[in-house]
Write a structure and sequence with these properties.
The structure holds 3 protein chains of 3 kinds. Chain A is an all-alpha fold. Chain A is built from 14 helices and 2 strands, in the order ααααβααβαααααααα. In chain A, helix 1 packs antiparallel against helix 10, helix 3 runs antiparallel to helix 4 and helix 12 packs antiparallel against helix 14. By secondary structure, chain C is an all-alpha fold. Chain C has a domain of 248 residues: ABC transporter involved in vitamin B12 uptake, BtuC. The longest helix of chain C is centred in the middle third of the chain and has 30 residues. Classes of the chains: A mainly alpha, B alpha/beta, C mainly alpha. At the A-C interface, helix 3, helix 4, helix 11 and helix 14 of A face helix 5, helix 6, helix 13, helix 15 and helix 16 of C.
């Protein structure tokens, strides 16, 4: 394998890891506040559809992004209503949201565009287009011929859409918010012991809704990225289990922001390699089944959860609705 | 001390609160003067905690008014209570376990949006408070790594940091040793000297007599009396609490001792966190005797019951009627223990002894559901269990005597009778019984005590665990005191008193 | 205290939840420019208007009875088995192996063999997450979700690389031999003089599913094991006190659950497709969640809810055929049922409790 192939794979890793990263951080906010969210998948899917649909209708990807975030927030609202206000089962609510999104996106897509559950293809200002850094080479042949440093600069660092850079910035921001601000302290506390927050005179409900809303916004960006940056339009079920891989990454990262970055990039690498079986064969000298690579994040999550590689302890109040004691 | 012209720190007028069909507080009025310690005493379920939760904004009263320092005040939430200068130390601490002391103190009372300045400020005032009230804690220690006494200090500091003038403590000594409790009362005294007002909720008469200036008595949701502590006696308070003269002494004859039924040698239990809960315990119980285990909650009594009852693993040797009991292997479970003749009335009937959603008849089979009498072929014979339950309910005077009613719909006393009937009627050789009268009304207490003594008189061995010294002293023939996983010592019931046992409970060799 | 009478708990609450889901679904249909009443008529006509329609409705219902029971049994032990889909996929593999590699002399023996293998495969796929939960404390919901994806990968691999006949293009096994073709409802009902559509896929598996409903009812409410499963589901701490092993109950409940989900394959793989294809389960494992929630985890409730979902499935297919409403409408309805009967249960229950409390006070 030559250096350029490596750079290409890493470049694909970045592109594929970004939606996982955003969804993973989304889940981090929610679960750190004590609300389990297995509806990341559904929120991403809904956002992917509405971003593409509205971008296609208005010609502006920015309005599309807002629409995607709004759709994701709406589903977050349902999750909040079910799990915070009505103290329902958070897992069941998440399941419902995933199905709601899977069904509604196709239903509305068919009603609006009559293209078998897709949106029209997006182009120009309807998409988030690659940003080329100053001096970066743009054609594959030019990059291939350039020095390794230039290859890294042109192929790996430059040429991603704005959302990629935004997503990467979200990691330190999340860390800062969680560990350096009042909001973060309270958020972490409400996921560990909501009674402590409540008796300290802070609204448990308010904090949890805030967390769920942040989760909605991040899932919204993740979905918009899928349909307006990674792809050019929405197709049925395009989130393709990414919400669950993100969940797996969250456990893998033990609910910590920087580790979320590492975990999602690792899983992104698997996805990138799945597309390049030739490379794997060249490197390790034997054929690896694509299905195995595809299943690897799930298998790794099972192994991690089982505590064979360090124990993953979720926030203590996670999944439990808060009821005041008598 | 206070003349009548100063406004009360707190005045409640006509507070009422119902939870569904249950009237928890009925038209309660109370005045608490500033700079005093005011005790509120009553049995479990008398409505003390509900009243204080209303004062702290946890519940909204259905009716009634609250005055703080003479001002009518609405307390819709905890925020408002804190703003009105009220701090509360709950029975179950409200701390974030994996946060530091400092983080817990500032939670909800931060200065500004960033943490650093808040933490710095809190560190400084923590030092001042520590000096002022003898409340030393390590600000950087994690809550999960400090003891309960320390955790309680953090709770008090939390209130003081929020500039509370009124401090409510709900059953603060339940988890403390007598010496820790004494220390707490010294701190409270100091707080009073600084002009703070303290409300002390407890069901322990001794604490009321020792620590308070004034005492209010609650019974069944009503405030039955408020008196100056100096003008009353424990006997009078007890009578006010329960509404009639109480027999604190149980009638019983001296024991007729038989052979050793339970013999425990060097029993050790290590919990899931790797903490040693029982540190090489040895004891024995003879037929026809009640061995009482006294001690502050959390000193290994629960683990002793669990390991003997078959749901915690241990090492060492335990024999029943001379035959060894498997402590770690395949046959160390509740069912096998029952088959060997060990009955167990657990400490917490709602979490362990009963399935609250199961009907009374299903609960009567609980743990004995393998009994051949309850089977017909491969199926359970529900009718037979119901029949058996009806008979047991009648013998134990369970009300209402309806086997189909879910356990959660019975009162605490009747729930306990269901458990007791199930366990005692099996004619066991050994009865393990923990906190037999916790949360049980006074009428049922007498009945339950009589049943225990009757079982002893039939020549059964009984191991009684209770945190109520009074109960131990009135029931047990022999008393062992547990402290920190050890047995501090044993005494014949007639040759000891509360004072000596109290010292032993605090880990003092006597 | 029980605020509500039992009938309200068992009938009224699910009924109102269902009504809410139905109203919202109607609004959705309105919003995409179709007539909900006409759509409902079309669905009833298509699903229940002919023996052909019934044949499909009951075929789908059979799937959902198995997966609904699977989720219910786990619910009784307070375990949320989201892995029905993966367990059903593996069950399909079991059926395919049983039918392709064992020369059964008669379909009835073949069916027995297929039930055993399908159940065993499903059970194994549930047993691993159960073991990890019981012994290692892994959250069973997450593990079973992961196992769904792993199952899909396994099935994909088996069909593409192992079981696909030489020269065939699509990832599927060869057709099962004639001897293991199951009798359809047409075949069963014809001898007793009832004519039933020949083309519809409902088959003898429906009877197996009904027997499973009865057996599970007996298991849960009439046996020691059922007593222990429910006890553990209500209170783990009490179960330990009574000598009921959490490990044992978790394992057994999940094994029964997985076996039931796996057994679904006798219907869709052996009874209908007569070969194993990718995506044979068509989401039936997930619909089991909605069915169990609606049926309050009671076999009779599951039976009724399964038929309702069978109706929705067949009706939805008819809708997609004759109108511009896509089949995904069913997914939406399914989501709404899960939402209202599951997650938003309290939203329905709380006002009802208030009404009953007021009624009781008024009555006194």
């Amino acid at each position: 394998m030559d250096f350029f192939t490596l750079i290409q794979i890493l470049d694909a890793t970045v592109r594929l890891a970004i939606p996982l990263l955003l969804a993973c951080l989304a889940g981090l906010f929610s679960e750190r506040a004590g609300i389990f969210d297995i509806g990341l998948e559904g929120k991403m899917l809904a956002a992917a559809f509405f971003s593409a649909a509205i971008a296609s209708m208005t010609g502006s990807v920015w309005i599309g992004l807002l629409a995607g975030i709004a759709a994701s927030l709406f589903l977050s609202g349902i999750h909040g209503l079910a799990s915070i206000t009505f103290r329902g089962n958070q897992l069941i609510s998440g399941v419902a949201i995933n199905f709601l999104a899977a069904g509604m996106t196709v239903l509305i897509a068919q009603s609006w565009f009559s293209q078998g559950g897709r949106t029209p293809s997006l182009s120009g200002a309807e998409r988030f287009n690659p940003i080329n850094f100053p001096g970066a080479l743009t054609t594959t042949n030019e990059v291939k011929a350039a020095s390794p440093l230039m290859q890294v600069y042109s192929e790996l660092l430059s040429g991603h859409s704005l959302l990629v850079y935004v997503a990467l910035l979200t990691v330190p921001m999340t860390w800062w918010l969680l560990y350096r601000t009042r909001f973060g302290l309270r958020l972490r506390a409400v996921g560990e012991n909501p009674a402590a927050v409540d008796t300290a005179g802070v609204s448990v409900v308010g904090l949890r809704y805030a967390a769920v809303a942040i989760c909605g916004i991040l899932c919204g960006i993740a979905g918009a990225y899928l349909s307006t940056a990674l792809q050019a339009g929405f197709v049925k079920d395009m989130s393709a289990g990414r919400g669950f891989i993100a969940l797996a990454a969250l456990i893998f990262a033990k609910w910590r922001p920087w580790h979320a970055l590492y975990a999602t990039f690792l899983f992104g690498l698997f996805q990138a390699l799945e597309l390049r079986p030739d490379v794997i064969e060249a490197v390790i000298g034997m054929k690896v089944q694509g299905q195995f690579l595809g299943a690897l994040p799930y298998i790794m999550t099972v192994v991690i959860l089982a505590g064979f590689v360090g124990k993953a302890i979720p926030p203590r109040a996670g999944g439990e609705p808060y009821v005041k004691e008598r | 001390m206070n003349n009548d012209t100063t406004a009360p720190a707190i005045e409640l007028k006509g507070i009422s609160k119902a939870f569904g069909p249950v009237q928890a507080n009925k038209d309660i009025s109370i005045r608490v003067m500033p700079g005093t310690i005011h005790g509120i005493i009553g049995e479990n379920g008398a409505g003390k905690s509900t009243l204080m939760s209303i004062l702290y904004g946890f519940y909204k009263a259905d009716k009634g008014e609250i005055f703080i320092g003479g001002q009518k005040t609405e307390i819709p939430d905890s925020q408002a209570a804190i703003a009105a200068g009220i701090g509360m130390v709950f029975q179950h601490f409200k701390l974030v376990e994996n946060f530091t002391v400092l983080e817990n103190i500032i939670l909800g009372a931060e200065d500004g949006r960033l943490l650093k300045p808040s933490l710095a400020k809190a560190r400084k005032s923590l030092l001042e408070l520590a000096a002022e009230y003898e409340l030393n804690v390590d600000p950087d220690a994690l809550i999960e790594e400090i003891g309960v006494g320390m955790q309680q200090r953090v709770e008090i500091l939390k209130a003081l940091y929020r500039q509370a003038d009124i401090l409510i403590l709900d059953e603060p000594t339940g988890v403390l040793t007598p010496s820790e409790a004494d220390q707490l009362f010294r701190i409270l005294g100091r707080l009073r000297a600084e002009g703070k007002t303290i409300i002390l909720i407890t069901h322990k008469l001794r604490e009321i007599m020792e620590a308070t200036d004034t005492v209010s008595v609650m019974r069944r949701g009503e405030m039955t009396a408020t008196v100056k502590t100096a003008d009353t006696s424990p006997e009078e308070l007890a009578e006010l609490m329960v509404g009639r003269k109480v027999l604190l002494q149980v009638d019983k004859t001296p024991p007729t001792l038989g052979d050793v039924v339970l013999d425990v040698q060097n029993l050790r239990v290590v919990d899931e966190q790797g903490v040693e809960r029982l540190k090489s315990i040895s004891l024995n119980v003879r037929a026809g005797e009640i061995l009482g285990i006294a001690g502050v909650a959390g000193n290994g009594q629960s683990e002793l019951l669990e390991v003997l009852g078959g749901y915690a693993d241990g090492t060492g040797s335990v024999t029943l009627n001379g035959e060894a009991i498997d402590l770690t292997g395949k046959y160390s479970d509740g069912k096998t223990r029952r088959a060997r003749g060990i009955a167990h009335v657990p400490e917490d009937r709602q979490r362990e002894g009963l399935i609250m959603d199961y009907s009374a008849w299903e609960n009567t089979a609980f743990g004995y559901h393998d009994d051949p009498a309850y089977q017909s072929g491969i199926f359970i014979n529900n009718a037979a269990i119901r029949q058996d339950t009806e008979e047991k309910m009648e013998r134990f005077d369970v009300r209402p005597p309806n086997p189909r009613l879910a356990a959660k719909n019975f009162s605490g006393g009747n729930q306990q009778k269901i458990v007791l009937a199930r366990e005692i009627e099996r004619n066991p050789d050994l009865l393990l019984i923990g906190q037999p009268t916790r949360g049980v009304d006074i009428g049922a207490i007498e009945f339950i005590h009589q049943q225990i003594v009757a079982l002893r008189d039939q020549g059964k061995a009984i191991l009684l665990v209770s945190v109520e010294l009074e109960e131990i002293l009135s029931l047990a023939d022999r008393v062992a005191v547990m402290f920190d996983g050890h047995i501090m010592g044993e005494r014949a019931a007639g040759e000891t008193d509360e004072k000596e046992l109290g010292l032993m409970m605090a880990g003092v060799e006597t | 205290m029980d605020v509500m009478p039992k009938w309200a708990e068992v009938v009224l609450v699910p009924l109102i939840s269902l009504l809410l889901a139905a109203i919202l679904s109607g609004l959705v249909i309105l919003a995409i420019g179709e007539d909900p009443i006409a759509a409902l008529k079309l669905m009833i006509d298509g699903a229940l208007g002919s023996t052909y329609g019934w044949g499909y409705t009951l075929y789908y219902a059979t799937n959902f009875m198995f997966t609904g029971l699977a989720v219910s049994v786990a619910f009784h032990a307070r375990l949320f088995n989201i892995g029905g889909e993966g367990q059903a996929m593996l069950g399909g593999l079991g059926v395919a192996l049983a039918c392709l590699f064992i020369p059964w002399p008669h379909w009835s023996l073949g069916l027995l063999g297929a039930i055993v293998l399908a159940g065993a495969f499903g059970a194994i796929w549930a047993a691993v997450p159960a073991y990890l939960q019981a012994k290692r404390g892994s959250h069973i919901v997450i593990t079973t979700i992961m196992f769904n994806f792993i199952a899909a990968a396994v099935l994909n691999y088996m069909l593409v690389n192992v079981l696909r006949p030489k020269g065939a293009m699509d990832p599927a096994t060869a057709r099962f031999p004639e001897a293991v073709h199951l009798p359809t409802l047409h075949d069963i009902l014809a001898p007793i003089g009832i004519s039933f559509s020949k083309a519809a896929p409902a088959n003898v598996s429906l009877l197996v599913a009904i027997v499973a409903c009865v057996l599970i009812w007996l298991l849960i409410w009439r046996t020691k094991l059922g007593y222990e499963i429910r006890a553990y589901g209500h209170s783990e701490s009490a179960a330990k006190y009574a000598g009921i092993s959490p490990v044992k109950i978790t394992m057994i409940a999940m094994i029964i659950s997985g076996a039931l989900a796996g057994m679904m394959a006798i219907n869709n793989v052996m009874g209908e497709a007569e070969r194993l294809v990718l995506n044979a389960t068509e989401g039936a494992g997930f619909i089991g969640i909605a069915v169990a929630l609606m049926g309050r985890s009671h076999p009779l409730g599951v039976f009724i809810a399964a038929i309702l979902f069978g109706f929705l499935y067949q009706g939805g297919a008819e809708l997609a055929l004759w109108t511009s409403i896509p089949r995904e409408l069913i997914v939406v309805i399914q989501a709404l049922v899960i939402l209202f009967t599951g997650a938003l249960d309290n939203m329905v229950r709380m006002p009802l409790e208030r009404i009953f409390l007021a009624l009781r006070k008024g009555g006194n």
